[in-house]
Design a protein that fits this description.
The chain is built from eleven helices and no strands. It is an all-alpha fold.
């Protein structure tokens, strides 16, 4: 719902969803402290400002980083707009706007320090990751391509973090590394050939239908690309000279 043009307007589906998340955070804090399941003196407030800002970075900057690593390019304006949308989300969730990074460069500095401070082996994290891998393998039609889920995770987060989270190594690990090059070739075909662009559009549509069918156990699921995103309204590919480049690491 966040990427809809009317996401922040009255009557949108996104605003109630954000309010539910804020209520969920408050409920978790309440129950953890009431049931003595959290050592506040040693660990601080659960779901504190630092963690909420960190979560905001994961849903914004890390998503942009991952798309770039896969060879999916955004314009500088698009990346900044996407990050700003998540800043608004953070404000709705109660993030202190005096503490949150205001630019993507500031976001990089915060995220680097946050990850160095908190990253490490975690049995709970490994258990959650296994459940997520199982969930996404159900989305991939059939079983032959199931290992691509683990391979993609390992490619995006690196071997060190993947080993911490017990992400299995697969025969697809090397294949996935070629994805950015493949997307580059497909992008070139799309730019230079109207017929190629049409064929790729049909292939993308078919892939989406198969994934949705697998996810919904064969039930019919209707979806539509928002009109504001269609090329008929002037939205075209990102020029190679205006592509966003992730801020360089700071630590």
């Amino acid at each position: 719902h966040l990427m809809q043009p009317d996401a922040f307007e009255a009557g949108s589906r996104f605003i109630p969803a954000a309010q539910k998340v804020r209520l969920l955070h408050a409920s978790i804090r309440h129950h953890l402290t009431r049931e003595n399941s959290w050592d506040t003196a040693a660990l601080g407030t659960p779901i504190c400002q630092e963690d909420m800002i960190g979560g905001q970075m994961f849903f914004s900057l890390l998503v942009l980083d991952s798309l770039h690593r896969l060879g999916i390019h955004m314009s500088t304006e698009g990346a900044e707009a996407y990050y700003y949308a998540w800043r608004v989300v953070g404000a709705m969730l109660g993030v202190d706007q005096d503490a949150v990074p205001r630019t993507l460069d500031e976001a990089r500095r915060f995220l680097d320090l946050y990850m160095v401070r908190h990253m490490g082996p975690s049995e709970e994290g490994a258990h959650l990751t296994t459940q997520l891998i199982d969930l996404y393998e159900e989305v991939v039609p059939g079983t032959f391509f199931d290992p691509i889920v683990s391979a993609l995770i390992r490619h995006l987060i690196g071997d060190t973090c993947a080993d911490w989270l017990h992400v299995p190594r697969t025969s697809w690990d090397t294949v996935v590394k070629a994805v950015p090059h493949l997307l580059g070739v497909l992008e070139t075909i799309e730019d230079r050939s109207p017929l190629g662009a049409w064929a790729l559009d049909r292939l993308g549509h078919l892939t989406t239908v198969l994934e949705l069918s697998s996810l919904t156990r064969g039930r019919v699921m209707h979806y539509a690309i928002p009109e504001t995103l269609k090329k008929d309204y002037g939205i075209t590919g990102v020029p190679r000279t205006r592509r966003w480049t992730p801020p360089t690491p700071t630590v």
